[in-house]
Amino acid sequence: MQVTLKVFRYNPEKDKKPRYETYKLEAEPTDRVLDLLEKVKGYEDGTLSFRRSCAHGVCGSDAMRINGSNKLACKALVHDFGSKITVEPILGLRVIKDLIVDMKPFFDNFRKVLPYFINDDPAPEKERYQSREDRERFDDTTKCILCAACTTSCPSFWASDEYLGPAAIVNAHRFIFDSRDQGAAERLKIMNEVMGVSRCHTVFNCTLACPREIQITKAIGEVKKALMTGSLE
Ligand code: SF4
Ligand code: F3S
Ligand code: FES
Question: What's the pTM value of the predicted model, to 2 decimals?
Answer without folding.
Answer: 0.96
